[in-house]
Amino acid sequence: MNISYSPSNNRLLAALPEREYQRISPHLEFVNLRLGQVLYEANTLIDSVYFPHQSMISIVSKLKDNVTTEIGLIGCEGMIGLPVILGGKYSINQAVVQVADGAFKVNADILKQEFQRGEALQKLLLLYTEIRLQQISQIAVCRSQHSIEKRFCRWLLLVHDGVGNDKLFLTQKFMAEMLGVRRASVTETAQKLQKSNLIRYKRGEITILNRQGLEKRVCECYHLMCQEFNRLMNLSRFKQ
Asked: What residue stretches are annotated with the HTH crp-type domain (predicted)?
């Protein structure tokens, strides 16, 4: 394992009691993830689970005409591969790397065995499942009720939270696909935010200049997601 990458940077792994972390840590393998890499295709067996380090993974629903819709966004606060612990074993949607960095990979069977012990890991991942379900619901509300600018701000803030870096390497094409809008709409919105000195935007790269300003422009969905995430994560605190 590369010592420059610590599992404690993933909030789920960091929340585990020491005894449970020590059981699973020998099975954690750090893997580099590249932009656009597909971790799971839809309707495929999940043989490994990923705990992102400073990468961001989009859970995407892809229709027959290749129209994509992002239904989840996961960074260092979460994990990829929930069907493993829920009994489904198969990925219903595609999981694609949105921001490149790395993740800690563990065999799906090993994680399931730890989950079935019924200890802290089980409680933690069930709470995280609730977080993910609420995120999916809130994203659906956001897409139907809020302007592209507000949704764009929400998306940027969630990515920023997940990677902890002001500089985000994101292509215009990818952002348009994740938001379900035209590329021209992404360009127009990014330029508007740039004129307000909230971001600096150039081809393939966005730099967050004024996070507080983005938080004032974002819809309430972002704040609701953060509040509920923090509330549920507080319930997962365990005595060491």
From this structure: 163-210
Q: Is residue 184 part of a domain?
A: yes
209 in the same domain as 169:
yes
Query: Strands (DSSP E) along the chain, which ranges?
Result: 29-33, 38-40, 44-45, 48-52, 56-62, 68-74, 90-91, 94-99, 101-107, 167-168, 199-202, 205-208
Q: Are 25 and 80 in the same domain? A: yes
- The range of the structural domain enclosing residue 162 comes to 143-224
Do 94 and 188 fall within a single domain?
no
Domain-embedded: residue 160: yes
Q: Could you tell me if residue 91 is left (phi over 0), alpha (psi between -120 and 50 degrees) or otherwise beta?
A: beta
Got the DSSP string for 191-232? Answer: HHHHHTTSEEEETTEEEES-HHHHHHHS-HHHHHHHHHHHHH
